[in-house]
Design a protein that fits this description.
Helix content: 25-40%
Radius of gyration: 19 Å
Number of strands: 11
Shape: globular
Distance between the termini: 21 Å
CATH architecture of the largest domain: Roll
Number of domains: 2
Oligomer: single chain
Length: about 260
């Protein structure tokens, strides 16, 4: 299976271009036959071509989307993108959403396809922007019936699941863990990980917490995002930039897994 970074980046770059061009067929064709869109992470995923087409019709077709990409990291067959998305709604409302966007790719019939998109962004923050103006309320009055029309009442409740999860509360745990890690204090950092926590640097390569702490130089972080049971952060570590992805499936106080895309 090919994991050439330039090939993966070039393939992923088609997604925002096709969104901007409102090319429904082209965008939906980027995905594997059993591909998935989880946007935002924590909401009900959209699996398979029909569900992805309905996602497009609900959230992409009526809006103008601009992707301001700050940084990309390729790890194996995954691309982690650090960006902000500006969405201009049909009502004229402009909403900017900070995001960490993960693309997992596969080879299918001799070519690359997207197996999964995981969009890490905070639904409550977006709704707060949206409902802070008259245009925002008009947008909500349009979006809700559109969502129900394309995805049914179950789709509406599935989308609103994005309001839940442990990720937003877990941001405080992630920040405290990173502070301990920056101080090379493995014991203090270990107080925030559960017994069977897996740490991967980069994803696919497991390391121990003492090993990770011992090798840390110049760790800084910003842009903490909580989505579903995940928290993510833009990090600078050992002269490199990337994204840390924390998983909190059992509660916001214990990290069950940590992946550093760097």
């Amino acid at each position: 299976m090919s994991s050439d970074p330039q090939a993966l980046l070039a393939y992923v770059a088609q997604s925002p271009k096709l969104c901007a061009a409102h090319d429904r067929t082209g965008w939906c064709s980027l995905f594997a036959a059993d591909g998935e869109v989880n946007d935002p992470v924590g909401s009900r995923p959209h699996r398979g071509r029909l569900a992805i087409e309905r996602f497009y019709d609900t959230f992409i077709a009526p809006n103008a989307l601009s992707f301001a990409v700050e940084h990309d990291v390729v790890c194996g067959m995954s691309v982690m993108r650090d960006l902000n998305i500006l969405s201009v709604m049909s009502t004229g409302l402009r909403v900017t959403v900070p995001m960490h966007l993960r693309y997992d790719l596969v080879e299918e019939r001799g070519g690359l396809k997207i197996q999964r998109i995981g969009a890490h962004w905070e639904l409550p923050g977006m709704l707060a922007q949206q409902l802070g103006s008259v245009d925002g309320w008009l947008t909500s009055l349009q979006l809700t019936p559109r969502l129900v029309r394309h995805q049914g009442v179950g789709g509406l409740f599935g989308f609103m699941r994005g309001l839940g999860g442990h990720g937003r509360a877990g941001k405080a745990t992630a920040a405290t863990f990173l502070s301990a890690l920056a101080a090379k204090n493995a014991a203090a950092a270990g107080a925030f990980v559960d017994e069977n926590c897996t740490i991967e640097v980069p994803p696919g390569t497991r390391v121990g917490l003492p090993e990770l702490a011992a090798g840390v130089r110049g760790l800084e972080w910003r842009k903490l995002i909580g989505a579903g049971d995940y928290a993510s952060a833009t990090i600078h570590l050992n002269g490199q930039r990337g994204v840390a992805l924390f998983h909190f499936p059992s509660g916001p106080d214990r990290i069950s897994s940590l992946q550093l895309f760097i």
